[in-house]
């Protein structure tokens, strides 16, 4: 994900399931976050490669609830 999103490791590690899944349990089209180091707001499109990887991971980990 990091290489596709151009995020620092701290920002990647701070992501939560609720940042990635909407209330229906679907992967959002864009991530909205504030970079920890610069405090800049970022809107990042989730590309197809990342979406596939996340879908695979969530399926294997049985993650469906965005509040986890």
UniProtKB/TrEMBL annotation:
Q: Which InterPro entries match?
A: DNA_brk_join_enz, Integrase-like_cat_sf
Keywords for this protein: DNA recombination
Alphabetized GO MF terms: DNA binding
Q: Specify whether Cell membrane is a keyword of the entry.
A: no
Signal peptide residues are none
Q: Which GO terms describe its biological process?
A: DNA integration; DNA recombination
- According to UniProt, the name of this protein is Tyr recombinase domain-containing protein
**Organism of provenance:** marine sediment metagenome
């Amino acid at each position: 994900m990091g290489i596709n999103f151009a995020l620092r490791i701290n920002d990647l590690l701070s992501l939560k399931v609720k940042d990635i899944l909407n209330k229906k349990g679907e992967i959002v089209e864009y991530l909205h976050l504030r970079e920890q180091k610069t405090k800049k707001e970022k809107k990042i499109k989730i590309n197809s490669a990342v979406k596939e990887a996340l879908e695979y991971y969530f399926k294997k980990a049985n993650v469906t609830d965005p509040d986890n």
